[in-house]
Amino acid sequence: MNLESLLHDRLAPAFAAVAGTPVDPAVRSSPHADLQSGAALALAGRLHRPPREIAAEVAATADLTGIAEVTVSGPGFLNLTVADGWIAAALDAIADDPRLGVPPVPDPKRIVIDYSSPNLAKEMHVGHLRSTIIGDSLARLLDWQGHDVHRVNHIGDWGTPFGMLLEHLAEAPAGTGHSLAGLTAFYRAARVRFDTDEDFRTRARLRVVALQNGDGPTRELWRRLVAQSEKAFLGVYDRLGVTLGAEHFAGESTYQDELAGIAAELAEKGLLTESDGALCAFPEGFTGRDGAPLPLIVRKSDGGFGYAATDLAALRHRVSDLGADELLYVVGSPQRIHFRMVFAVARAAGWLPATVSAEHIGFGSILGADGKMLKTRAGDTVRLSGLLDEADSRATDPALGIAAIKYADLSGDRRGDYVFDWDRMLASTGNTGPYLQFAYARICSISRRAEGAPGPIRITEPAERALALALMGFEPALTAAAGPREPHRIATYLYDLASTFSRFYEQCRVIDAEPETRSSRLALCELTARTLHTGMFLLGVEALDQI
Ligand code: ARG
Protein backbone atom coordinates (compact mmCIF):
# COMPACT_ATOMS: atom_id res chain seq x y z
CA MET A 1 0.00 0.00 0.00
CA ASN A 2 1.44 3.29 -0.98
CA LEU A 3 -0.31 6.10 0.84
CA GLU A 4 1.78 8.72 -0.87
CA SER A 5 0.80 7.66 -4.35
CA LEU A 6 -2.83 7.17 -3.35
CA LEU A 7 -3.05 10.75 -2.11
CA HIS A 8 -1.08 11.89 -5.11
CA ASP A 9 -3.71 10.31 -7.36
CA ARG A 10 -6.52 11.96 -5.41
CA LEU A 11 -4.95 15.41 -5.44
CA ALA A 12 -3.73 15.40 -9.04
CA PRO A 13 -7.15 15.95 -10.68
CA ALA A 14 -7.92 18.78 -8.24
CA PHE A 15 -4.60 20.51 -8.99
CA ALA A 16 -5.13 20.01 -12.72
CA ALA A 17 -8.60 21.56 -12.50
CA VAL A 18 -7.31 24.59 -10.58
CA ALA A 19 -4.16 25.09 -12.68
CA GLY A 20 -5.62 24.20 -16.05
CA THR A 21 -2.66 21.86 -16.73
CA PRO A 22 -1.40 18.64 -15.13
CA VAL A 23 0.52 19.33 -11.92
CA ASP A 24 2.58 16.99 -9.74
CA PRO A 25 0.99 17.33 -6.29
CA ALA A 26 4.40 16.52 -4.71
CA VAL A 27 3.02 14.62 -1.73
CA ARG A 28 5.75 14.10 0.88
CA SER A 29 5.96 13.00 4.46
CA SER A 30 6.14 15.90 6.84
CA PRO A 31 6.67 16.53 10.54
CA HIS A 32 3.51 18.69 10.57
CA ALA A 33 1.03 16.11 9.29
CA ASP A 34 0.97 12.54 7.99
CA LEU A 35 1.74 13.91 4.55
CA GLN A 36 2.03 17.27 2.94
CA SER A 37 1.81 18.84 -0.51
CA GLY A 38 3.75 21.97 -1.36
CA ALA A 39 2.61 22.13 -4.97
CA ALA A 40 0.47 25.25 -4.49
CA LEU A 41 3.57 27.27 -3.57
CA ALA A 42 5.29 26.27 -6.78
CA LEU A 43 2.19 27.15 -8.82
CA ALA A 44 1.66 30.63 -7.39
CA GLY A 45 4.07 32.39 -9.71
CA ARG A 46 2.69 30.79 -12.81
CA LEU A 47 -0.97 31.40 -11.91
CA HIS A 48 -0.34 34.89 -10.45
CA ARG A 49 -2.41 33.97 -7.43
CA PRO A 50 -1.58 33.76 -3.73
CA PRO A 51 -0.54 30.18 -2.86
CA ARG A 52 -2.96 29.91 0.08
CA GLU A 53 -5.85 30.69 -2.24
CA ILE A 54 -4.73 27.98 -4.68
CA ALA A 55 -4.29 25.51 -1.84
CA ALA A 56 -7.75 26.29 -0.48
CA GLU A 57 -9.32 25.76 -3.88
CA VAL A 58 -7.52 22.44 -4.35
CA ALA A 59 -8.60 21.38 -0.84
CA ALA A 60 -12.21 22.15 -1.68
CA THR A 61 -12.06 20.36 -5.05
CA ALA A 62 -10.15 17.19 -4.12
CA ASP A 63 -12.10 14.04 -3.42
CA LEU A 64 -10.60 12.66 -0.25
CA THR A 65 -13.80 11.46 1.37
CA GLY A 66 -13.13 8.82 3.95
CA ILE A 67 -9.38 8.88 3.33
CA ALA A 68 -7.91 12.05 4.72
CA GLU A 69 -8.60 15.47 6.21
CA VAL A 70 -6.96 18.30 4.39
CA THR A 71 -6.11 21.73 5.79
CA VAL A 72 -4.23 24.70 4.39
CA SER A 73 -1.25 25.66 6.51
CA GLY A 74 1.59 28.15 6.55
CA PRO A 75 2.21 29.99 3.27
CA GLY A 76 0.09 27.51 1.30
CA PHE A 77 0.88 23.92 2.20
CA LEU A 78 -1.80 21.26 2.13
CA ASN A 79 -1.56 19.17 5.28
CA LEU A 80 -3.06 15.74 4.97
CA THR A 81 -4.18 13.73 7.96
CA VAL A 82 -5.25 10.22 7.13
CA ALA A 83 -8.49 9.03 8.73
CA ASP A 84 -8.06 6.43 11.47
CA GLY A 85 -10.90 4.33 10.09
CA TRP A 86 -9.34 4.32 6.67
CA ILE A 87 -5.96 3.24 8.06
CA ALA A 88 -7.59 0.43 10.05
CA ALA A 89 -9.49 -0.88 7.02
CA ALA A 90 -6.38 -0.69 4.84
CA LEU A 91 -4.39 -2.66 7.42
CA ASP A 92 -7.09 -5.30 7.72
CA ALA A 93 -6.78 -5.79 3.96
CA ILE A 94 -2.98 -6.01 4.20
CA ALA A 95 -3.27 -8.56 6.99
CA ASP A 96 -5.53 -10.68 4.77
CA ASP A 97 -3.01 -10.62 1.95
CA PRO A 98 -0.21 -13.22 1.95
CA ARG A 99 1.91 -10.64 0.10
CA LEU A 100 1.25 -7.98 2.76
CA GLY A 101 -0.28 -5.55 0.32
CA VAL A 102 2.64 -5.65 -2.09
CA PRO A 103 1.36 -6.65 -5.53
CA PRO A 104 3.76 -8.36 -7.95
CA VAL A 105 5.25 -5.92 -10.44
CA PRO A 106 2.96 -5.40 -13.44
CA ASP A 107 5.78 -5.78 -15.96
CA PRO A 108 8.10 -8.57 -14.79
CA LYS A 109 11.56 -8.53 -16.35
CA ARG A 110 14.05 -11.27 -16.92
CA ILE A 111 16.95 -10.18 -14.77
CA VAL A 112 20.34 -11.87 -14.88
CA ILE A 113 22.27 -11.09 -11.72
CA ASP A 114 25.98 -11.87 -11.51
CA TYR A 115 27.16 -12.04 -7.92
CA SER A 116 29.58 -13.67 -5.51
CA SER A 117 31.80 -14.78 -8.42
CA PRO A 118 34.88 -15.71 -6.39
CA ASN A 119 38.07 -17.02 -7.91
CA LEU A 120 38.72 -20.69 -7.98
CA ALA A 121 41.60 -22.28 -6.20
CA LYS A 122 41.77 -19.44 -3.75
CA GLU A 123 39.59 -19.64 -0.74
CA MET A 124 36.84 -17.05 -0.71
CA HIS A 125 37.94 -13.98 1.20
CA VAL A 126 36.04 -11.06 2.67
CA GLY A 127 36.16 -9.20 -0.62
CA HIS A 128 33.66 -11.71 -1.97
CA LEU A 129 31.51 -11.49 1.13
CA ARG A 130 29.90 -8.22 0.13
CA SER A 131 29.11 -9.31 -3.40
CA THR A 132 27.56 -12.50 -2.05
CA ILE A 133 25.45 -10.80 0.61
CA ILE A 134 24.34 -7.77 -1.39
CA GLY A 135 23.76 -9.79 -4.55
CA ASP A 136 21.71 -12.36 -2.70
CA SER A 137 19.54 -9.74 -1.08
CA LEU A 138 18.86 -8.08 -4.43
CA ALA A 139 18.11 -11.44 -6.05
CA ARG A 140 15.65 -12.23 -3.24
CA LEU A 141 13.98 -8.83 -3.51
CA LEU A 142 13.63 -8.87 -7.30
CA ASP A 143 12.39 -12.46 -7.16
CA TRP A 144 9.83 -11.55 -4.57
CA GLN A 145 8.66 -8.59 -6.63
CA GLY A 146 7.77 -11.08 -9.34
CA HIS A 147 10.70 -10.70 -11.73
CA ASP A 148 12.20 -13.69 -13.47
CA VAL A 149 15.60 -13.71 -11.78
CA HIS A 150 18.55 -15.74 -13.07
CA ARG A 151 21.43 -16.00 -10.65
CA VAL A 152 24.87 -16.42 -12.15
CA ASN A 153 28.08 -17.20 -10.31
CA HIS A 154 30.80 -16.11 -12.73
CA ILE A 155 33.65 -17.81 -10.92
CA GLY A 156 37.21 -17.24 -12.07
CA ASP A 157 38.01 -20.78 -13.16
CA TRP A 158 40.25 -20.13 -16.16
CA GLY A 159 43.27 -18.20 -17.30
CA THR A 160 47.00 -18.07 -16.77
CA PRO A 161 47.06 -18.55 -12.96
CA PHE A 162 45.80 -22.05 -13.62
CA GLY A 163 49.06 -23.01 -15.24
CA MET A 164 50.86 -22.66 -11.96
CA LEU A 165 48.11 -24.30 -9.91
CA LEU A 166 47.73 -27.28 -12.20
CA GLU A 167 51.45 -27.80 -12.53
CA HIS A 168 51.82 -27.68 -8.76
CA LEU A 169 49.01 -30.20 -8.43
CA ALA A 170 50.47 -32.43 -11.14
CA GLU A 171 53.81 -32.49 -9.35
CA ALA A 172 52.32 -33.33 -5.95
CA PRO A 173 53.64 -36.68 -4.71
CA ALA A 174 51.32 -39.40 -5.91
CA GLY A 175 48.58 -40.36 -3.51
CA THR A 176 48.98 -37.33 -1.25
CA GLY A 177 46.22 -35.49 -3.06
CA HIS A 178 47.66 -33.12 -0.55
CA SER A 179 47.20 -29.57 -0.82
CA LEU A 180 43.67 -29.25 -2.14
CA ALA A 181 42.13 -29.48 1.31
CA GLY A 182 43.72 -26.20 2.30
CA LEU A 183 43.12 -24.25 -0.86
CA THR A 184 44.72 -21.06 0.31
CA ALA A 185 47.91 -22.76 1.41
CA PHE A 186 47.96 -24.67 -1.84
CA TYR A 187 47.63 -21.47 -3.84
CA ARG A 188 50.40 -19.78 -1.87
CA ALA A 189 52.78 -22.70 -2.28
CA ALA A 190 52.20 -22.67 -6.04
CA ARG A 191 52.72 -18.93 -6.12
CA VAL A 192 56.02 -19.15 -4.25
CA ARG A 193 57.34 -21.73 -6.68
CA PHE A 194 56.17 -19.68 -9.63
CA ASP A 195 57.92 -16.59 -8.31
CA THR A 196 61.18 -18.29 -7.41
CA ASP A 197 61.69 -21.23 -9.74
CA GLU A 198 62.37 -20.45 -13.38
CA ASP A 199 61.90 -24.05 -14.57
CA PHE A 200 58.60 -24.34 -12.74
CA ARG A 201 57.50 -21.13 -14.41
CA THR A 202 58.21 -22.62 -17.82
CA ARG A 203 56.34 -25.82 -17.01
CA ALA A 204 53.43 -23.75 -15.70
CA ARG A 205 53.25 -21.84 -18.99
CA LEU A 206 53.18 -25.10 -20.90
CA ARG A 207 50.35 -26.25 -18.63
CA VAL A 208 48.25 -23.27 -19.70
CA VAL A 209 48.76 -24.24 -23.31
CA ALA A 210 47.94 -27.87 -22.50
CA LEU A 211 44.76 -26.80 -20.71
CA GLN A 212 43.70 -24.62 -23.60
CA ASN A 213 44.44 -27.37 -26.11
CA GLY A 214 42.28 -29.80 -24.19
CA ASP A 215 45.08 -32.13 -23.07
CA GLY A 216 43.34 -35.01 -21.26
CA PRO A 217 45.34 -35.36 -18.03
CA THR A 218 45.54 -31.57 -17.63
CA ARG A 219 41.80 -31.25 -18.05
CA GLU A 220 41.34 -33.96 -15.48
CA LEU A 221 43.47 -32.08 -12.96
CA TRP A 222 41.58 -28.91 -13.74
CA ARG A 223 38.26 -30.64 -13.16
CA ARG A 224 39.48 -31.83 -9.75
CA LEU A 225 40.48 -28.33 -8.85
CA VAL A 226 37.12 -26.95 -9.98
CA ALA A 227 35.13 -29.60 -8.13
CA GLN A 228 37.07 -29.04 -4.92
CA SER A 229 36.68 -25.29 -5.01
CA GLU A 230 33.01 -25.40 -5.86
CA LYS A 231 32.43 -27.66 -2.92
CA ALA A 232 34.18 -25.17 -0.66
CA PHE A 233 32.10 -22.27 -2.06
CA LEU A 234 28.86 -24.20 -1.56
CA GLY A 235 29.85 -24.86 2.03
CA VAL A 236 30.23 -21.14 2.62
CA TYR A 237 26.92 -20.33 0.88
CA ASP A 238 25.19 -22.85 3.03
CA ARG A 239 26.58 -21.35 6.22
CA LEU A 240 25.65 -17.89 5.03
CA GLY A 241 22.11 -18.92 4.09
CA VAL A 242 22.61 -17.63 0.58
CA THR A 243 20.36 -18.81 -2.26
CA LEU A 244 23.24 -19.62 -4.63
CA GLY A 245 23.54 -23.27 -5.55
CA ALA A 246 25.52 -25.57 -7.82
CA GLU A 247 23.05 -24.85 -10.62
CA HIS A 248 24.17 -21.21 -10.71
CA PHE A 249 27.85 -21.85 -11.39
CA ALA A 250 28.79 -20.56 -14.81
CA GLY A 251 32.51 -19.87 -14.56
CA GLU A 252 34.71 -18.06 -17.00
CA SER A 253 35.63 -21.39 -18.62
CA THR A 254 32.04 -21.66 -19.91
CA TYR A 255 32.78 -19.07 -22.58
CA GLN A 256 36.17 -20.26 -23.80
CA ASP A 257 34.90 -21.51 -27.14
CA GLU A 258 33.23 -18.16 -27.83
CA LEU A 259 36.25 -15.93 -27.37
CA ALA A 260 37.85 -16.23 -30.79
CA GLY A 261 34.47 -15.48 -32.35
CA ILE A 262 34.03 -12.44 -30.10
CA ALA A 263 37.36 -11.03 -31.28
CA ALA A 264 36.60 -11.85 -34.94
CA GLU A 265 33.22 -10.16 -34.79
CA LEU A 266 34.62 -7.06 -33.12
CA ALA A 267 37.35 -6.90 -35.75
CA GLU A 268 34.81 -7.25 -38.53
CA LYS A 269 32.82 -4.37 -37.08
CA GLY A 270 35.95 -2.25 -37.06
CA LEU A 271 36.01 -2.06 -33.27
CA LEU A 272 39.49 -3.51 -32.67
CA THR A 273 42.85 -1.80 -32.86
CA GLU A 274 46.25 -3.39 -32.45
CA SER A 275 48.26 -1.94 -29.64
CA ASP A 276 51.63 -3.36 -28.56
CA GLY A 277 50.69 -6.70 -30.06
CA ALA A 278 47.36 -6.85 -28.22
CA LEU A 279 43.94 -6.43 -29.80
CA CYS A 280 42.06 -3.69 -28.02
CA ALA A 281 38.77 -1.87 -28.24
CA PHE A 282 38.88 1.84 -27.50
CA PRO A 283 35.29 2.77 -26.62
CA GLU A 284 34.55 6.43 -26.92
CA GLY A 285 34.77 8.62 -23.86
CA PHE A 286 37.24 6.57 -21.81
CA THR A 287 40.59 8.17 -21.18
CA GLY A 288 43.32 7.59 -18.66
CA ARG A 289 44.87 10.22 -16.38
CA ASP A 290 47.17 11.31 -19.18
CA GLY A 291 44.19 11.88 -21.47
CA ALA A 292 45.11 8.95 -23.70
CA PRO A 293 42.26 6.63 -24.77
CA LEU A 294 41.84 3.63 -22.44
CA PRO A 295 42.01 0.18 -24.02
CA LEU A 296 39.75 -2.74 -23.27
CA ILE A 297 42.07 -5.64 -23.99
CA VAL A 298 40.23 -8.29 -25.97
CA ARG A 299 43.20 -10.45 -26.99
CA LYS A 300 46.48 -10.22 -25.18
CA SER A 301 49.79 -9.99 -27.00
CA ASP A 302 50.50 -13.67 -26.19
CA GLY A 303 47.31 -14.58 -28.07
CA GLY A 304 45.33 -15.44 -24.93
CA PHE A 305 41.95 -14.05 -24.06
CA GLY A 306 41.36 -12.52 -20.68
CA TYR A 307 38.80 -11.14 -18.28
CA ALA A 308 37.29 -8.55 -20.65
CA ALA A 309 36.82 -10.90 -23.60
CA THR A 310 35.15 -13.39 -21.27
CA ASP A 311 32.82 -10.71 -19.95
CA LEU A 312 31.84 -9.74 -23.49
CA ALA A 313 31.06 -13.37 -24.32
CA ALA A 314 29.12 -13.83 -21.07
CA LEU A 315 27.14 -10.66 -21.73
CA ARG A 316 26.25 -11.74 -25.25
CA HIS A 317 25.13 -15.12 -23.91
CA ARG A 318 23.00 -13.54 -21.19
CA VAL A 319 21.24 -11.29 -23.68
CA SER A 320 20.81 -13.54 -26.68
CA ASP A 321 20.53 -17.00 -25.12
CA LEU A 322 19.07 -16.25 -21.70
CA GLY A 323 16.88 -13.44 -23.05
CA ALA A 324 17.77 -10.95 -20.31
CA ASP A 325 15.99 -7.61 -20.12
CA GLU A 326 18.30 -6.41 -17.37
CA LEU A 327 21.88 -7.35 -16.54
CA LEU A 328 23.15 -6.74 -13.04
CA TYR A 329 26.76 -7.15 -11.91
CA VAL A 330 27.34 -6.99 -8.18
CA VAL A 331 31.07 -6.40 -8.10
CA GLY A 332 33.29 -4.09 -6.03
CA SER A 333 33.57 -0.46 -7.06
CA PRO A 334 37.17 -0.72 -8.34
CA GLN A 335 35.76 -2.57 -11.37
CA ARG A 336 33.49 0.31 -12.32
CA ILE A 337 35.47 1.38 -15.37
CA HIS A 338 35.88 -2.21 -16.54
CA PHE A 339 32.11 -2.68 -16.65
CA ARG A 340 31.39 0.69 -18.22
CA MET A 341 33.85 -0.18 -20.98
CA VAL A 342 32.46 -3.69 -21.46
CA PHE A 343 28.95 -2.25 -21.74
CA ALA A 344 30.09 0.42 -24.20
CA VAL A 345 31.86 -2.09 -26.43
CA ALA A 346 28.90 -4.48 -26.26
CA ARG A 347 26.55 -1.66 -27.28
CA ALA A 348 28.78 -0.72 -30.17
CA ALA A 349 28.94 -4.35 -31.28
CA GLY A 350 25.15 -4.67 -31.16
CA TRP A 351 25.21 -7.32 -28.39
CA LEU A 352 23.52 -5.04 -25.92
CA PRO A 353 20.43 -3.55 -27.59
CA ALA A 354 18.95 -0.31 -26.27
CA THR A 355 16.03 -2.29 -24.80
CA VAL A 356 18.35 -4.15 -22.43
CA SER A 357 19.86 -2.36 -19.46
CA ALA A 358 23.21 -3.22 -17.93
CA GLU A 359 24.20 -2.01 -14.48
CA HIS A 360 27.31 -2.38 -12.43
CA ILE A 361 26.22 -2.48 -8.79
CA GLY A 362 29.39 -1.42 -7.04
CA PHE A 363 30.16 -1.44 -3.36
CA GLY A 364 32.83 -0.18 -1.01
CA SER A 365 35.38 -2.06 1.04
CA ILE A 366 35.32 -3.68 4.44
CA LEU A 367 37.87 -1.95 6.63
CA GLY A 368 39.70 -2.96 9.77
CA ALA A 369 39.72 -0.89 12.95
CA ASP A 370 42.74 0.97 11.53
CA GLY A 371 40.61 2.27 8.65
CA LYS A 372 42.56 0.23 6.11
CA MET A 373 41.41 -2.82 4.16
CA LEU A 374 40.52 -5.62 6.55
CA LYS A 375 43.55 -7.86 7.13
CA THR A 376 44.58 -10.43 9.71
CA ARG A 377 47.16 -9.41 12.33
CA ALA A 378 49.78 -11.08 10.18
CA GLY A 379 48.73 -8.83 7.29
CA ASP A 380 47.00 -11.54 5.26
CA THR A 381 43.60 -11.27 3.66
CA VAL A 382 40.90 -12.54 5.98
CA ARG A 383 39.51 -15.90 5.01
CA LEU A 384 35.75 -16.00 4.89
CA SER A 385 35.40 -19.35 6.60
CA GLY A 386 37.59 -18.14 9.47
CA LEU A 387 35.38 -15.11 9.82
CA LEU A 388 32.27 -17.26 9.96
CA ASP A 389 33.90 -19.49 12.58
CA GLU A 390 34.58 -16.44 14.66
CA ALA A 391 30.97 -15.26 14.25
CA ASP A 392 29.79 -18.63 15.54
CA SER A 393 32.06 -18.54 18.55
CA ARG A 394 31.31 -14.93 19.49
CA ALA A 395 27.52 -15.09 19.25
CA THR A 396 25.34 -16.94 21.72
CA ASP A 397 23.57 -18.63 18.81
CA PRO A 398 25.17 -19.28 15.38
CA ALA A 399 22.14 -17.81 13.63
CA LEU A 400 22.78 -14.54 15.47
CA GLY A 401 26.42 -14.30 14.44
CA ILE A 402 25.85 -14.85 10.73
CA ALA A 403 22.84 -12.54 10.75
CA ALA A 404 24.92 -9.88 12.50
CA ILE A 405 27.58 -9.98 9.78
CA LYS A 406 25.05 -9.92 6.97
CA TYR A 407 22.94 -7.20 8.51
CA ALA A 408 25.96 -4.99 9.22
CA ASP A 409 26.87 -5.27 5.56
CA LEU A 410 23.38 -4.57 4.27
CA SER A 411 22.35 -1.81 6.65
CA GLY A 412 24.63 0.86 5.22
CA ASP A 413 24.62 2.34 1.72
CA ARG A 414 26.45 -0.28 -0.34
CA ARG A 415 28.64 2.35 -2.00
CA GLY A 416 30.33 3.24 1.26
CA ASP A 417 33.18 1.49 3.06
CA TYR A 418 32.52 0.24 6.56
CA VAL A 419 34.59 -0.82 9.51
CA PHE A 420 34.25 -4.44 10.54
CA ASP A 421 33.52 -4.24 14.24
CA TRP A 422 32.28 -7.30 16.13
CA ASP A 423 31.03 -5.34 19.14
CA ARG A 424 28.91 -3.02 17.04
CA MET A 425 27.59 -5.79 14.78
CA LEU A 426 26.62 -8.04 17.68
CA ALA A 427 25.09 -5.31 19.87
CA SER A 428 21.48 -5.96 20.78
CA THR A 429 20.58 -2.28 20.60
CA GLY A 430 20.83 0.06 17.65
CA ASN A 431 20.41 -0.75 13.98
CA THR A 432 21.84 -4.28 14.15
CA GLY A 433 20.90 -7.81 13.17
CA PRO A 434 20.51 -9.00 16.77
CA TYR A 435 18.25 -6.03 17.60
CA LEU A 436 15.86 -7.03 14.81
CA GLN A 437 16.05 -10.68 15.70
CA PHE A 438 15.23 -9.99 19.36
CA ALA A 439 12.43 -7.64 18.34
CA TYR A 440 10.95 -10.30 16.11
CA ALA A 441 11.25 -13.05 18.73
CA ARG A 442 9.67 -10.80 21.36
CA ILE A 443 6.60 -10.17 19.21
CA CYS A 444 6.29 -13.88 18.53
CA SER A 445 6.35 -14.51 22.25
CA ILE A 446 3.60 -11.92 22.86
CA SER A 447 1.39 -13.72 20.35
CA ARG A 448 2.14 -17.07 21.99
CA ARG A 449 1.32 -15.83 25.46
CA ALA A 450 -1.84 -13.90 24.61
CA GLU A 451 -5.24 -15.48 24.74
CA GLY A 452 -7.65 -14.97 21.90
CA ALA A 453 -7.19 -14.47 18.22
CA PRO A 454 -6.27 -11.36 16.25
CA GLY A 455 -9.32 -9.47 15.04
CA PRO A 456 -10.29 -6.32 13.17
CA ILE A 457 -7.91 -3.42 13.72
CA ARG A 458 -9.21 -0.33 15.53
CA ILE A 459 -7.10 2.72 16.11
CA THR A 460 -7.56 4.70 19.29
CA GLU A 461 -4.12 5.49 20.72
CA PRO A 462 -1.43 7.61 19.03
CA ALA A 463 1.09 4.76 19.46
CA GLU A 464 -1.25 2.41 17.61
CA ARG A 465 -1.64 4.93 14.87
CA ALA A 466 2.11 5.39 14.54
CA LEU A 467 2.61 1.63 14.29
CA ALA A 468 -0.19 1.32 11.75
CA LEU A 469 1.33 4.01 9.55
CA ALA A 470 4.75 2.36 9.83
CA LEU A 471 3.23 -0.95 8.73
CA MET A 472 1.77 0.73 5.68
CA GLY A 473 5.26 1.83 4.71
CA PHE A 474 6.42 -1.67 3.73
CA GLU A 475 5.53 -1.51 0.06
CA PRO A 476 7.06 1.95 -0.49
CA ALA A 477 10.24 0.78 1.28
CA LEU A 478 10.59 -2.22 -1.02
CA THR A 479 9.99 -0.11 -4.11
CA ALA A 480 12.51 2.44 -2.89
CA ALA A 481 15.08 -0.32 -2.33
CA ALA A 482 14.55 -2.14 -5.61
CA GLY A 483 14.84 0.87 -7.93
CA PRO A 484 18.36 2.00 -7.03
CA ARG A 485 19.31 -1.54 -5.85
CA GLU A 486 19.75 -0.41 -2.27
CA PRO A 487 19.02 -3.12 0.31
CA HIS A 488 19.87 -0.70 3.11
CA ARG A 489 16.51 0.97 2.54
CA ILE A 490 14.81 -2.22 3.66
CA ALA A 491 17.09 -2.40 6.69
CA THR A 492 16.32 1.20 7.66
CA TYR A 493 12.62 0.52 7.29
CA LEU A 494 12.75 -2.61 9.44
CA TYR A 495 14.71 -0.85 12.15
CA ASP A 496 12.15 1.99 12.20
CA LEU A 497 9.31 -0.49 12.29
CA ALA A 498 10.85 -2.45 15.17
CA SER A 499 11.48 0.76 17.12
CA THR A 500 7.94 1.99 16.47
CA PHE A 501 6.62 -1.35 17.66
CA SER A 502 8.66 -1.07 20.79
CA ARG A 503 7.10 2.34 21.61
CA PHE A 504 3.66 0.90 20.91
CA TYR A 505 4.30 -1.98 23.26
CA GLU A 506 5.52 0.36 25.99
CA GLN A 507 2.37 2.45 25.74
CA CYS A 508 -0.36 -0.01 24.87
CA ARG A 509 -1.30 -3.07 26.88
CA VAL A 510 -1.84 -6.11 24.72
CA ILE A 511 -2.09 -9.33 26.70
CA ASP A 512 -4.29 -7.96 29.47
CA ALA A 513 -6.35 -5.54 27.38
CA GLU A 514 -10.15 -5.76 26.92
CA PRO A 515 -10.99 -8.55 24.45
CA GLU A 516 -11.85 -6.26 21.54
CA THR A 517 -8.81 -4.02 22.03
CA ARG A 518 -6.67 -7.08 22.59
CA SER A 519 -7.68 -8.72 19.33
CA SER A 520 -7.01 -5.48 17.44
CA ARG A 521 -3.60 -5.12 19.09
CA LEU A 522 -2.80 -8.75 18.49
CA ALA A 523 -3.55 -8.15 14.83
CA LEU A 524 -1.06 -5.26 14.91
CA CYS A 525 1.51 -7.53 16.61
CA GLU A 526 0.99 -10.27 14.10
CA LEU A 527 1.22 -7.97 11.13
CA THR A 528 4.40 -6.43 12.55
CA ALA A 529 5.91 -9.89 12.96
CA ARG A 530 5.00 -10.91 9.44
CA THR A 531 6.37 -7.68 8.01
CA LEU A 532 9.64 -8.06 9.92
CA HIS A 533 9.87 -11.69 8.88
CA THR A 534 9.35 -10.91 5.20
CA GLY A 535 11.72 -7.96 5.27
CA MET A 536 14.41 -10.00 7.00
CA PHE A 537 13.87 -12.80 4.52
CA LEU A 538 14.49 -10.33 1.70
CA LEU A 539 17.74 -9.30 3.33
CA GLY A 540 18.64 -12.95 3.86
CA VAL A 541 18.71 -12.45 7.64
CA GLU A 542 17.18 -15.29 9.58
CA ALA A 543 14.17 -14.52 11.79
CA LEU A 544 13.81 -16.90 14.74
CA ASP A 545 10.53 -17.28 16.66
CA GLN A 546 12.48 -17.91 19.81
CA ILE A 547 16.02 -17.03 20.81
N1 ARG B 1 36.07 -13.08 -10.20
C1 ARG B 1 36.04 -11.65 -10.25
C2 ARG B 1 36.85 -11.10 -9.07
O1 ARG B 1 37.01 -11.76 -8.07
C3 ARG B 1 34.66 -11.06 -10.20
C4 ARG B 1 33.78 -11.43 -11.37
C5 ARG B 1 32.60 -10.51 -11.47
N2 ARG B 1 31.75 -10.80 -12.57
C6 ARG B 1 32.06 -10.57 -13.85
N3 ARG B 1 31.19 -10.89 -14.76
N4 ARG B 1 33.17 -9.97 -14.20
O2 ARG B 1 37.31 -9.98 -9.15
Outline of the structure:
The protein is α/β, with parallel strands linked by helices and 547 residues long.
Q: What would the keywords be for this entry?
A:
547 residues, alpha/beta, Isoleucyl-tRNA Synthetase, Domain 1, four-stranded antiparallel sheet, 20 helices, 13 strands, globular, binds arginine
Helical segment tally? 20
Helix content: 40-55%
Strand content: 5-15%
Q: Which class do the helix and strand fractions yield?
A: alpha/beta
The CATH C-level class name of the domain at 433-539:
Mainly Alpha
**Secondary structure: number of strands:** 13
* CATH fold-level label of the domain at 433-539: Isoleucyl-tRNA Synthetase, Domain 1
For the termini, the CA-CA separation is 31 Å
* Uncertain ranges: none
Mean of all residue-level pLDDT scores: 93
Enumerate the strands of the largest sheet in spatial order, edge to edge or round the barrel. Answer: 1-2-4-3
Please, what is the CATH homologous superfamily of the domain at 433-539? Isoleucyl-tRNA Synthetase, Domain 1
Largest sheet geometry: 4 strands, antiparallel
Bound molecules: arginine
